[in-house]
Amino acid sequence: MKILLLGSFFLGFLLPLSAQKTSSYSTYSSFIEYQKAIPRLGDALKRKEDTLQKQFEKKGLVWPAKFLYIRSFKYDSQLEVWVKNELKEPFTLFKTYKVCALAGTLGPKRIAGDYQVPEGFYYINEFNPQSNYHLSLGINYPNISDRILSDSLQPGGDIYIHGSCVTVGCIPMTDDQIEEIYLMAALAKDLGQDFIPVHIFPIRYNVKRSTDYLNNLTKDDISLKRFASKLEDAFNYFERHKQLPVVLVNENGEYMVNGIIKKDPAEKKDRIKRPPVQHRVRNIPDVAQVVNQWPQFPGGGDAFLGYLKQLGKDMVDQLPTGMIKAFVIVEFLVDKDGIPTNFNVVKGVSEDFDDELITRMEKMPEWLPAILNDKPVAKKIKQSFAIEQE
Question: Which residues are catalytic?
Answer without folding.
Answer: 162, 170
